[in-house]
Amino acid sequence: MTQTQAEIKQAVLRLLGEIAPEADLASLKPDVSFRDQLDIDSIDFLNFVIALHDALGVEIPESDYPRLATLNGCIEYLSALETHGR
Amino acid sequence: MAEFVMPTLGADMSAGTLVAWRKKVGDRVTRGEVIAEVDTDKAAIDVEVFTSGVIEKILTQPGEKVPVGTVMAIIREEGKPTGKKVEAEVETKPVAPLAAEPGRLRISPAARQLAAELGVDPALLRGTGPGGAITREDVEAAARASLKPIAPSPSPIASAPEAAADRQARIRQAIAAAMARSKREIPHYYLSATIDMGRAVAWLAEENLKRSVVDRLLSGVLFIKAVALALREVPELNAVWKDGRAIQSQAVHVGVAISLRQGGLVAPALHDADRRSLGDLMRNLQDLVKRARAGSLRSSELSDPTITVTSMGEQGVDTVFGVIYPPQVALVGFGKLVERPWVVQGAVVPRPVVTATLSADHRVTDGHRGGLFLAAVDRLLQEPDRL
């Protein structure tokens, strides 16, 4: 994992923790959907996307939301945005 | 003089515990301003005042359990003559300790909100407020200490799991009381309609392309607006049952069922939902969900709903058979948005559809009116650009 990916992972976990404070993020499975592991709904997910937007300065089209469904998906998608510019 | 009373925040509340006053005798207050923090079985609530004026007298102290309707303070209304001078001891009266119920977490809504924002677990804090209540300062201090919560110490405050379990038990009891009353007193009837969401889904996708991340809409907000507008056509569903008769509300305050993370649910109001834009409703809904889960709702949000909307599609539910929240007289449910075969001009085509249900009080309306209401919801969802 590159430094950028590690930073993205840390940011994603921090933002998830703010949205679902009761979640045990240490045991989050990276390839399993957040919704299957955490008690989050569509509004939580929208708030998560907004938080990513605010924290990382990225504009994420709605059509790309499925790519943010898992931790690894987030890392892959957001690090690609970093690489190719926002 | 006006009386500031413990408000009723729903059918499942008979009393609340005053956590703190935000104002003192002599302070000016404005209609809509939060002047007290109250803890109920279901949530910690910021209580607003509905009279502008000056606080003349405070009659209850933090820690007291106050029945609904009890006068908590006297307010001298603006433009009215001054009452008798308030005795100083009212302000300096020793604060009664908060009842040290085992497992009960004493925390104001503001402190709870701050704790959520700062990632501090309030159950692990030692409160320094009245009777051990956790204050904003306690939360800030914990956050400053590298976000490490203060270690639990011998105090009336229970451990996190105990406090959470106690809160959950109280929430369940409150819901049980309201739902049992509903089923005991309200003769429900149920109707359902399957609604073609093709136009709404396409419109929403196109609309969200134009919106930035922070302004995007969810289909749930279309449901809420469609219900709110349909109530203009069947206003008898927008009412409360009181003293043996239905009282229609001029304003449409849609209660939105929100599940709480620790279990249970609340249904606070989106005020004047029929008059707000979709963007406005969406922002308000996001804020309401956030505050409901952080435990910082306002009293008017819990006391004002005139109908409830619940959307359970995300749980995979097809059809909702809701229980009306008294004293309301109707509840509208939405199930999962799914693609189904749909006949259009003799041809079977795939269409996204949703099942909308109405649970209504038969003392107030009949199925005919209920059917008209669901038809109006359907029609409104066929013209999403006009919502």
Calculate the mean pLDDT score of chain B and round it: 84
Oligomer: heterodimer
Number of strands of chain A: 0
Give the percentage of residues in beta strands of chain A.
under 5%
Report the end-to-end length of chain A measured between terminal Cα atoms.
20 Å
In CATH, what is the class of the largest domain in chain B? Alpha Beta
Largest sheet of chain B: 7 strands, mixed
Q: CATH homologous superfamily of the largest domain in chain B - what is it? A: Chloramphenicol acetyltransferase-like domain
Q: Specify the helix fraction band of chain B.
A: 25-40%
- Helix coverage percent of chain A: 55-70%
CATH topology heading of chain A = Non-ribosomal Peptide Synthetase Peptidyl Carrier Protein, Chain A
Short description, anyone?
The complex is a heterodimer of chains A (86) and B (387). Chain A is built from four helices and no strands.
